Amino acid sequence: MLFFLLIGFVLIGYGVVKATQEKISTSSDHIIQQNYKVKREILEDILDKVEYWETQNGFLDSRITQRSLAKTLNTNSAYLSKAINVYKKQNFASYLKGVRIAYAIDHLQQNPEMLKTKSMIQIAEMYGFNSLTVFTKAFKNKTGTTPGIFFRKMIEQEFRKNMQ
């Protein structure tokens, strides 16, 4: 009899613990959802600042780092990283290289004469790269071809356009 009474208390205690855990789990889900909304708003605010920074061509500064950009945007590195990961679908380094390459291509298409007067390392440095190797690799990742081949084709197109 004592054995059954003891089992009853254990089962009742288990039920109370389980119900309490479910309550805690449900309320913590609610808190997480509320925190997510706050974090999403913060991340969207950071993204707005990043996009403004892009319009100012801040990415051309070869000294920019995730930490220095976070400081410029009055946030922290973790939030900046999260915003870029979530909204740009890449890490900070890939994002930065991609923005630089896209700008370089656009800028050089508008100013093809620069290709005739600048060396490849000068071009890389103009667009925020400290290394020709990093520039070439980032360029090839973005376009599927090396900058040398891409720029040669641009020069040929410009030449044909001028001949017509």
Automatic annotation (TrEMBL):
Record has tRNA-binding as a keyword: no
Membrane spanning residue stretches: none
Record's keyword terms, sorted: DNA-binding, Transcription, Transcription regulation
Pfam families: HTH_18
Xref: SMART domains: HTH_ARAC
Keyword Transcription regulation in record: yes
InterPro entries in the cross-refs: Homeodomain-like_sf, HTH_AraC
Protein known as: AraC family transcriptional regulator
